[in-house]
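Worked example

This section walks through a single chain of length 499. The input is the sequence exactly as stored; nothing has been trimmed or padded.
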Amino acid sequence: MRHTKTIALVTFPLWACLALSAQNVKIVRPREIDDVLVNPGIGFTTFQRFNGDALNEGQQWTEGYPIAYQPFKGTLKNIGYPDTSLAYFRICWRFLEPQPGNYRWDLIDSALRTARERGQTLMLRIVPYGMEADDDAPDWYHSLVGDKTARLSNPKWRTNPEDPHYVEHVGQLIREAGLRYDGVPDLQSVDVAIVGAWGEGDGSQLLSSKTRQALLDAYLNSFQKTPLVMMLSDPQTNGYGLSKRDVGWRVDCFGDMGAPNANWSHMLDYYPQAIISFGMENAWKKAPVALESCFVMQHWKDSGWNLDYIIDQSLKWHISSFNAKSSPIPPAWQPQVNRWLKKMGYRFVLRKFTYPDLVQSGGKLDFTSWWENKGVAPCYQRFALALRLKSRTNNQVLLTDADIRNWLPGDNLYANSLFIPTALPAGKYELSLAIIDPGSKNPKIKLAIAGAAPDGWYPMGTVNIAPPRRATRLSFLFLAMGIFWGIAKVSYFTFARIH
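Given that input, the structure is written out below as tokens.
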């Protein structure tokens, strides 16, 4: 019996070897940070002012009047007040429409422009009237309907909302505002202000269904893109709003714990009950909760009100923003305010991120992510979760379909496979992620993790990009030819030795 011994050596290209080798999955566990973060749509708001402006003096504030703009001092820092992404502007009807159909949109345009220049978006309320002669409904309107204040049903009404002219003119003002401003990126939200002093909704329960629905529809139909925030007013008004679309809610005397020896306060005897009774307890899941200080925070301190209790109630109600009326924060309360800011709205911590160390051009990058929202509310704006592949010569941003508006407080999981463009050159890339503006592709949300790059992206590690699949197929063809040739040679020499 003859024994044969053959050795075949086959070689093939390096990239084919890499493609055939098992991919290694990289696991990233970012380190959480405890910083106060300034993010879109959440936190304290400035009031009739903007970042970098001087604050109100003492315990006074203004509202409803055209803004008295302060010269920009070259810094966006607020002294004695938190830095913020939000500016809140309240303007009375009489200033917006000094004559019938003559609208002063420049008052809102200027506020939007200044907010953008100061790194803020604008929250807006168009106020039907205040309680003084200089912030009342327009003079031309009172001339139209006559002076009927003595016969009004509510002490905080300055005109009769059941008069058909009220629905006509207030409704038209809101519709015109919607045509001009709905969906404008710099407009964060619009308050639904239909009746009562400063638009706070006093007496809304007295309105007829016809009047209530007509006034509400002016907002609901005109602002389809910009979030709407309703006053916490009564079951009929809030219920109708919620029946039409997702709306948030707000109150304007938050923090009120009552006068000494008083047996009633907003915080103990009205807000907790009204949130449930008016059907607004779950509204926060789809639209923001905005709270406004009763008086100013220094008044709270002087009155001996319990700040920790007030803060904890707001967190229980899923607060996103707080209007402290651009009045200085008592310095001794800064640690508690910082605690508040770290919970207010959303706060995203990336707990775990996995991805392969090798991906092929024209193939897909599979990744998983585990996020924890340590705030008390979601983000209500549709920013995009994105990955970025970056080398010295190439920069590719990959958008995901993650809807971060659904990332409620607690744990959230998101995984996807993103297509790698065939034209992306092979090589080693830095893989980063960020939550970005889908239009500009710039990062918008600061994460509560360490390692942010100066441009706002968060590096996760490196990934190797292999050549496109067509090159790999060619490699396999050469490999197959080599194996076939090797087998043929082995068979030939074996046959020859036997014979």
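What to look for: The longest strand covers residues 364-373.
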